[in-house]
Design brief:
By secondary structure, the protein is mostly helical. It has helices at 2-22, 29-37, 54-66, 73-82, 86-113, 121-169, 174-184, 188-203, 207-218, 221-236, 241-296. 81% of the residues lie in helices and 0% in strands.
């Protein structure tokens, strides 16, 4: 009874997704009026492009997955960090899930050609497990890559703070110091900072406002705190050189702490292979004695 129930539930869910994609619900009149009265949000600074194959395949899966609230808030922020489109992420999840679901049945078909059979339960359970793993794997990959890129951004931000502090000490203004410091650096982090400052020039807004927006889009609180400190100097004439130097020192201390934590984690991970190697060596040394004892019995 299990295979018919699973196939029936899968067919029902598939038909429901197809119906939700073909006939989308109409928004309420109150929601339409609220959208018309609200101020349009500022254009995003970090732009994410979808892969070319998503235009052909991703449009089939993305609308249905969006109705389930995917991707979440945290995953959306991670996608902006790695500059991957939402449709690309959702299409990857759906295609990997479908591939994992069909792979055991293809293996079953190949075995059937050779005269072997695994039954229906084994491909069904294996397909469900592989589909779940394929659906979750893109989220784990995005989270790991976003964590690494955020750490690299913080490393570059400490250098950016030092450059801004040096330029301010030379007598430059706040906006000039930000522009000169961003123009000197290289790398993805400095490219995004330069894009934020360029967006401030195009939209005629303050550079600390676009830096705060960039920090919110990337989920980097240090950049938002930097924008708040610089805004005091830009609007009220406060002296922020000491504050910027302290923030740069705090970021460098955080980098050293992260490096020490990674080193300790790598050391702990190396303990398991060494322990297994030691146990294997003990087994190799004790094997002749154990065989002699067993043969004597």
């Amino acid at each position: 009874m299990i295979p018919p129930l699973v196939f029936g539930a899968g067919a029902g869910v598939g038909l429901w997704l197809l119906l939700a994609w073909a006939v989308p619900p109409r928004p309420a009149l109150g929601d339409r009026l609220a959208q018309a009265s609200t101020r349009p949000p500022a254009p995003p600074i970090v732009l994410a492009a979808d892969a070319p194959w998503v235009r052909a395949w991703g449009r089939v899966f993305a609308p249905g997955l969006r109705r389930f609230g995917l991707p979440g808030t945290r995953t959306s922020a991670d996608l902006r960090v790695i500059r991957r489109g939402t449709d690309t992420h959702l299409a990857s999840k759906a295609l990997l899930a479908v591939a994992g679901l069909l792979a055991p049945w293809l293996l079953q078909a190949l075995l059937a050609v050779g005269g072997l059979s695994l039954g229906l339960e084994v491909p069904l359970l294996a397909g469900l497990v592989l589909a779940a793993l394929g659906f979750v794997a893109p989220d784990l990959d995005v989270r790991a890559r976003a964590t690494r890129l955020r750490r690299e951004f913080r490393d570059a931000l400490s250098a950016f703070l030092d450059l801004v502090w040096i330029t301010l000490a030379g007598g430059a203004g706040v906006e000039a110091a930000l522009g000169d410091a961003a123009a000197v650096g290289a790398g993805p982090a400095f490219d995004q900072i330069r894009r934020a400052l360029h967006a401030a020039q195009l939209t005629r807004t303050t550079p600390w406002a676009t830096l705060r927006q960039l920090g919110e889009e990337l989920g980097i609180t240090e950049l938002s705190e930097l924008a708040a400190s610089i805004s005091l100097a830009g609007t009220e004439g406060a002296r922020v050189r000491a504050s910027l130097a302290a923030k740069a020192q705090a970021l460098r201390t955080h980098q050293v702490t992260d490096a020490e934590t990674d080193a300790q984690a790598a050391t702990e991970r190396m303990a398991l292979p060494v322990s297994l190697l030691f146990l294997g060596f003990l087994g190799f040394m004790a094997y002749p004695a154990v065989i002699q004892v067993l043969n004597g019995l």
